[in-house]
Each structure stands twice: as structure tokens, then as C-alpha cells.
Sequence to fold (172 residues):
Amino acid sequence: MRSVIVTAVCRDRTGLVSALAGRLFDLGCDLGDTSFATLAGRAEFTSVCDVPDEVGDDGLRDQLARLPEVAGGSVSVVPFQAAAGAPPDAVTHRIVLSGGDRPGLLARLSEVFVQFGANIVRLDAHRLPGRPETRYVTRFDVAIPARSAASCLATVANTAGELGLTCHWDAV
Fold:
């Protein structure tokens, strides 16, 4: 077995995750960390997979690219090795912010985490259509060092307030 990172980018459609995960399973792959997101009508599936040695990277890519659900999209398969010395990825807090959209919003919020040595493990940001003003919802999954958690969360809440956003968090 060897580790690869598989990425498929294509038009979003029902059954896409099922088709990709099913074909990977059929080929003997074991999915590890995996994410899926839709972005403006496009979809991105990314997974770190352990792949049997007899399944070549080109064959794996071709098998996934031939799926009808991936038609018109792209698939990549590249070797993967976990990075030594990477920031911690154990999420300690989930923070959800909501309010009006404006330029620089993500930049201002993410700067707060740097001040406190916190690592953003996952970020999801979405515009919610169909309202008089555009509503923007952002979710950060972060690893905040215990020694600075209270100060970091207070600063996030203050920054959110300055930007006219609501802020909620939970310890994970």
C-alpha cells in the first residue's frame, strides 16, 4: 500500500460522492482524511487514500475520470506523505460567524488566529442568497493552544462585532 491524494473537480451532481467513494472502495483503496465541497456549482472531492500497490496512479485516475458523475471534470492522483513538523490538526474549537458580506472579512478574521498561534484546520465560507442583503456564514475549525484559547476567542468575538457579525463557538 502507498498513500496518494486524490482530487476530483467537476460539476456538482447528485451521487458524486457515492460514485467516487464506491469506485475507490472497489479498487481496494482505504480513504483517510477526506473533504467535499461545492463552490459556485462546481464540486471538489479530495481524499488521502491508501492504495494497493497493484493499482497504478494512472489507472486509478482513469477509473475515476470515467465515472459518469465526473464527466467533464478533472481528476488528479499524486503521491502523498504527511508533512513532518506541520501545525497541529486536532480541532479544539468550532467557530461560526454570520452577517453581511464585505471585502477583507476572511483576511481580518484569520489574522486573529495568527496572533494567538492557532491553526485553521478547516474553513467553510458561504454566501446565502435570497435575502435583501447578502448574508455570509463562515465556519472555522481551529486548533487553539490551551494557554491562549480564552484570549483568542474573545478577540475573535470582538473582531466579529466590529465587522457586524454574530459569533458562536463550541469547544470540540
